[in-house]
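Kindly review both lines to help learners:
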Amino acid sequence: MQAKSIAVVTGGAGFIGSHMVDRLLREGYTVRVVDNLTGGRLSNLAHLERTADFSLEECDIRDLSPDSSVFSDVSYVFHFAGIGDIVPSIEQPIDYMATNVQGTVRVLEAARHGGRATLKRFVYAASSSCYGLAETPTREDYPMQPQYPYALSKYQGEQVVLHWGQVYDMPVNSMRIFNAYGPRVRTTGAYGAVFGVFFRQKLAGKPYTVVGDGTQTRDFIYVTDVAEAFFLAAHHPHLGEIYNIGADKPQSVLHLVELLGGSVANGDVVFLPKRPGEPDCTWANTEKITRLLGWKPSVDFKTGVSIMLQDIDKWQDAPLWDADSIAKATATWFRHMDKK
């Protein structure tokens, strides 16, 4: 019997990574997860506890050695591990650069050595934040304008991946993810992803804290559509490519409030100062990934939000944010980012 192909998912206990694990197991791969469980959660993988083809290595990618046994005979590497919260990067630039850049180097070297005779694809989770305050819809060839350390670290991580493809002939691709959402979305202690903030506020019966006037739009893309894009990028022949992953249909923050049952007229919203350095609109031009990989999103925004609402109780342990706690959490951001 032919042995199953081995896939390593770094950050596989995290939001997108855990969905990638599910996608690979459905296809019959042996899946090894590397996660230090700082941002990832064991509960995201609990349903796989008795799955024979699944294993978890609790490890920080910054500590990986080139001869790591986790990467032995690996065929596919999906690199999601890193620090994902944006706002704290202003205060912790060393940690972000060490994890998202140097950690990526560690993963590449482990994949290069462990998959010396077997590696078919290394797919990197990049970020649309590298575009900064870009024109929209944003194409992959638009200028890079990272506005804060998180964005810079993810962009430099991408440069490292493409460089390893150039110098060491590694079969790499990079995926610039726009605003991913869906089940298991991050609920860390840091102020961040709007879904974690809003769902917890809804459960507590508290007002939604809307940054700016709420008319700003985000290209929300459902998490299983993101995982599918990564899967296709790993199995099509194209190498050294950069792809945008977005729905190509930006949604306003106030529309999200409405889908959650809130209303400005009913006093369900508290408006907060707009954060400098953040765009009014994120909007992915997805012509390239559709043309080369045949990928298109399959879950529309209303459907995606309704699916998440079915499990809203899972956000009970998320931090409950209000205007005062958000102001404290973002004070350093405003001090460094507001250049007016």
Q: What stands out?
A: The mean pLDDT is 96. Residues 192-218+249-282+299-334 form a domain with the UDP-galactose 4-epimerase; domain 1 fold (CATH 3.90.25.10).
